[in-house]
Amino acid sequence: MSATMQLDIVSAEGEIFSGKVDRFFAQAANGEVGVLPHHTQFITTLKPGEVRVMSGDEVSYFYVSGGVLEIQPDVATVLADSALRAKDLDEAAAQEAMARAQEAMDNAKTDLDVTRAQNALAEAAAQIAMLGRLRDQLSKQGLMH
Amino acid sequence: MASGKEIRGKIASIKNTQKITKAMELVAASKMRRAKQRMDAARPYADKIKRVIGHLTKAHPEYKHAFMTVRPVKRVGVVVITSDRGLCGGLNANLLRRLSGRVKEWQTAGTDVSYSVIGSKGASFFKSFGGNLLATKTGLGDKPHVTDLIGSVKVMLDAYEQGNIDELWLMSNEFVNTMTQKPTMHRMLPIAQEDVSASNGHWDYLYEPEAKDVLDALLKRYVESMVYTATVENVACEMSARMIAMKNATDNAGKFIKELQLAYNKARQAAITAEISEITAGAAAVSG
């Protein structure tokens, strides 16, 4: 029948999904992208959000907190981050590692906590939105049966 | 010859030590199993990101990222992965010996070396070894998390981007099997572009948002993934090395106890014999 493509969703701490799919949607850097088999080579960063995977009548949702999506005509890979990433968070981690090396710890407080809180908030909001959609879907299925 | 009481005290103390080493052996064995599970869990990501990088090296990008550009090597950076704790046989010592051998080679060739070290055994090694230590991360525990490593990796990537190092290497232990751990060293950066001008056509990715941003994110994760995988593997190595070391210690304690028990029995027998001969000598003197 219709063509399928291999989709692998992995995070550094384990495999999340691997299988043949008809199409899927992901939250790319410039907005949502839908991917069908035989897509041209495409690579993008992902925003925190859901990956919606469709194979046959089945739809599954996966939450990723960012990462990279790579598409080849017959195979797509979602490299999901296992941690929230932000430039200043990374920067702070680097600073800390350097400070350790120099052993000059001068407890400089930054507005790191604010960034962390904002990130947590964004992630929570995305998760809640996805849960809402999942619930809608489940209740619809419940009505049908 | 030591008296019976002294030997008995020694035996008791060795038996206590043996109990401790036996317990440590069992703990290390169960931790090793879990570390191996984490190692297996990390493999899909490492494989997939390698596949993506493999595709990338076959593309013809208009934009050439610094991490994929080979430069003449004047300075190198090494990420060294060690354990936080000791009592794991020669695991860290072997790794650091191998490292200092390679560093000597680099230095005689006039190449500067700077380090980013993970694990407190490595950190204390560099206190005496000297060298240009850029970043340190200790106290990762048995379940290292990617987040814990971002800082140390970023320091090295920044140094690479700023031209302070021209190559980035990774030094860590490879888990061959429970009995064998092998210190290994390989180059993470730059990633060599494959020469595929003839083979499978001329193509490049569509990038979103910009080639630099996407490649930055991807290559950063690639290096982090390698360091993370190596760290998780190093925990498995540490646990299996400790398990073997503690097993040997337990066996040695057992042997020692056996020898002491023999010595104790001999001493006891000697004491009895001496007593009897004294009594008989005394009796002979009285009756004679």
Question: Can you tell me about this structure?
Answer:
The complex is a heterodimer of chains A (145) and B (288). Chain A has helices at residues 87-102, 112-144, and strands at 5-11, 14-21, 23-28, 31-35, 42-55, 58-72, 75-80. The model of chain A is unreliable at 104-110 (pLDDT under 50). Chain A is an alpha+beta fold and 145 residues long. In chain A, a hairpin with a 2-residue loop joins strand 3 (23-28) and strand 4. With 288 residues, chain B is α/β, with parallel strands linked by helices. In chain B, 35% of the residues are buried. A five-stranded mixed sheet of chain B has the order 3-2-1-4-5, with helices on both faces. Chain B has five helices and six strands; from the N terminus they run H-E-H-E-H-E-H-E-E-E-H.
Explain the layout of strands and helices.
The complex is a heterodimer of chains A (145) and B (288).
Chain A: E1 5-11, E2 14-21, E3 23-28, E4 31-35, E5 42-55, E6 58-72, E7 75-80, H1 87-102, H2 112-144
Parallel strand pairs in A: 1-7
Antiparallel strand pairs in A: 1-2, 3-4, 3-5, 5-6, 6-7
Chain B: H1 4-58, E1 75-81, H2 91-108, E2 112-118, H3 120-129, E3 132-137, H4 146-161, E4 167-175, E5 181-189, E6 206-208, H5 211-287
Parallel strand pairs in B: 1-2, 1-4, 2-3
Antiparallel strand pairs in B: 4-5
Helix pairs in contact in B: 1-5, 4-5
